[in-house]
Amino acid sequence: MTHDRSAGLVETARALADGTITSRALVEQALARIETSQASLNAFRIVRTKAALAEAEAADAQLAAGVRKPLLGVPVAVKDDMDVAGEPTAFGCRGEFPAVARDGEAVRRLRAAGAVIVGKTNTCEFGQWPFTEGPAFGATRNPWSPEHTPGGSSGGSAAAVAAGLVPAALGSDGAGSVRIPASWTHLVGIKPQRGRISTWPRGESFQGITVNGTLARTVADAALLLDAAAGNHALDPHRPPAVDASAAIGRDPGRLRIALALKPPFTALPARLRPEVRARVVELAEKLSDLGHTVEEADPPYGQIGLTFIPRATAGIAERVREAPFPALLDRRTRDAARLGGLLGGVPLRVARRAEAVLHRRIGGFFTSYDVVLAPTTAAPPPRIGAMLELGGLATDRAMIAACPYAWPWNVLGWPGVNVPAGFVGGGLPVGAQLLGPANSEPLLLSLAAQLEAELRWPEVWPEPRVSADSPVA
User: Where is the Amidase domain (predicted)?
Assistant: First the structure.
């Protein structure tokens, strides 16, 4: 009994509940696809073959006994910054890491919903860059074009979902690390409200800028995974009011006031929106206008928001480097960022954290005039494999800001954002656009994203399967 790789999370969960397929069969097929693609795509750091099959058999026993859970028996993947009991958490770093004793809260909740974790996906070192490459595991490639990166830092999760290896996956987003790879692999990527999906055993990840989010081919699948993973550990510092993401799918968003924000937020280094990406985002704006929304060009009052991002990001890297079992094996850029984080970790960090309330008031005021912001997710299509790998620190920052200047402000704010596919540019490379909202606005953003999906039907377009034995290996 084979299950089409195009079946999404919602469809797969339904087939399991209906008894038209077993979890064992599904997980075997997912593991076979992962194995076949690993030489070419390299999406996974760890494949849990034996454990996943055992979990699938346990799920089948529950299904046979009449137990029903939202994801019972469904294979999913998680990024390798999340703790899975019995597996190491290397977070893109070199070295042999010990197995962790217990699941992180997000993984615990996925399991409670019945999901089978088939593996942990590749990410760059401590999730710092918009590419998924490094000496620890090689290069993860884009299913749409193997010469290009799927983005980062949740590039392994994005590649796995885009290629149909799993129907959905968890990633994390500290400066666009879910939304950027989603945009570059033709996926829906949800960066939820801070605290929506717990980052425990860390109450905060990277000083609160990094949150866990979901990647899937459809809005409904991304929302279902969000609902399954959402919730808090008793000690979480951020505990937003619960939302029902799945209930927003198919709900009329109403006629919205949408700000088309094409200007990159202020950065110390130059960034320019590529004309071909601009054209795709403007087409999306026109589609929203056709659907009855009011769309006008307007940019949120970001001001000097970048000054609050750098202390939080670098202090977060410094924390990770202090805990790293093999600091000598870390990328020079990582060690340099950690040194900067050490310098900024006192007063500048406290000032940056306090500034968030001011930014909430100022940018929150923008949402009295507009309901949603539509912005490019990236300024450029995906770069080639290796384009940023060997650069020095400043050159990496320049390349990163030139390609990805749009996503990070929402990490400072802690508010939700959703990447939606915006089409393709030269050579068939995917690009995306972000729907951004104020605090706890996931239901509004998802109902709007689902309305766009119904019109544009992006899940129907797939990359060509590229899983031959002689495909390039990084």
Answer: 26-446
H-run or E-run covering 365: helix 347-366
Residue 158, CA atoms < 13 Å, CB-side half-sphere:
38
- Catalytic residue list: 79, 153, 177
**In angstroms, rounded to a whole number, what is the distance separating the alpha carbons of residues 21 and 57?**
12
**CB-based burial of residue 468 (10 Å sphere; 0-12 exposed, 13-18 middle, 19+ buried)?**
exposed
Which tokens hold the place of 473? 């290996």
> How many Cα atoms sit within 13 Å of 131 on the Cβ side?
27
CA distance 252 to 448: 8
Cα 465 from Cα 468, distance rounded (Å): 9
Cis peptide leading into residue 177 (ω within 30°): no
Residue 320 tokens, joined: 């990770």
| Distance separating alpha carbons of residues 232 and 205, to the nearest angstrom | 14
Q: Which residues make Cβ contacts (< 8 Å) with residue 237, sequence separation at least 6?
A: 195, 203, 204
Output b/e per residue, 382-399; b: 16+ Cβ within 10 A: bbebeebbeeeeeebbbb
Question: How many angstroms separate the CA atoms of 288 and 189, rounded?
Answer: 19
pLDDT band of 424, cuts 50, 70, 90: very high
Other C-beta atoms within 10 Å of 98: how many?
A: 8
Rounded distance, CA 319 to CA 199, Å?
A: 15
- Alpha-carbon separation of residue 131 from 44, 88, 150, 328, 396 (angstroms): 15, 22, 7, 22, 11
- With contact defined as beta carbons under 8 Å apart, do 294 and 257 qualify? yes
> From CA 375, how far away is CA 151, in angstroms rounded?
18
Which residues pair with residue 436 across a beta bridge?
Answer: 373, 417
User: Mean pLDDT across the stretch 389-417?
Assistant: 95
Residue among 409, 462, 432 at smallest CA distance from 183: 432
Give the orientation angle of helix 9-18 with respect to helix 219-229, to 10 degrees: 70
| SS3 of residue 329 by DSSP | helix
Q: Which pLDDT tens digit goes with each residue over 251-304?
A: 999 999 999 999 999 777 778 999 999 999 999 999 999 999 999 999 999 998
Please check whether residue 194 is in contact with residue 188, taking contact to mean a CB–CB distance below 8 angstroms.
no
